[in-house]
Amino acid sequence: MTQTHFTPVHPGDVLKDELEEIGITQSALAKHIGVLPKTINEICRGKRGISAEMGIKLSKALGGSPQFWLNLQNNWELSQIDETAFDIRPVAA
């Protein structure tokens, strides 16, 4: 069995692509889901992450599941951590 490796992308990149594909602006999405345009812009620029609440809002507006958006966020956050910086051994049972 082969594993597929991928480079995580910030959920904002996916959101930008989705908005371009369906042809709506960040401001229009913000108004539609009841958030400030600044919030959507910060997500699209990678300056803000996706919360559970935002995952639900994006899911309802754009389709897919809230888990899709949250998985993108979790994968991105994990990819930004250098695990070698943690010198922690397993707890002995």
Topology, element by element:
Elements lengths: L10 H12 L3 H8 L3 H8 L7 H11 L3 H14 L14
Helix pairs in contact: 1-3, 2-3, 4-5
Features:
5 helices; 93 residues; mainly alpha; 434 Repressor (Amino-terminal Domain); 0% strand
Outline the biggest β-sheet: none
Query: What do we call the CATH topology of the domain at 11-71?
Result: 434 Repressor (Amino-terminal Domain)
Low-pLDDT ranges: none
Strand content: under 5%
Helix content bin: 55-70%
Secondary-structure arrangement, i.e. CATH architecture of the domain at 11-71: Orthogonal Bundle
Shape: elongated
| Total helical segments | 5
CATH class of the domain at 11-71: Mainly Alpha
The total beta strand count reads: 0
**What's the rounded overall pLDDT mean?**
93
Oligomer: single chain
Order of helices and strands: HHHHH
- Give the N-terminus to C-terminus distance in angstroms: 33 Å
Radius of gyration, in Å, reads 16 Å
CATH superfamily of the domain at 11-71: lambda repressor-like DNA-binding domains
Instruction: Name the structural class.
Output: mainly alpha
Q: Would you summarize the structure shown here?
A:
This protein is an all-alpha fold and about 90 residues long. The chain contains 5 helices and no strands.
What does this structure look like?
With 93 residues, the protein is mostly helical. The protein has a domain of 61 residues: lambda repressor-like DNA-binding domains (434 Repressor (Amino-terminal Domain), Orthogonal Bundle), CATH 1.10.260. It is 57% helix and 0% strand. It has five helices and no strands. Helix 1 packs across helix 3, helix 2 packs across helix 3 and helix 4 packs across helix 5. The longest helix has 14 residues. The radius of gyration is 16 Å and the shape is elongated.
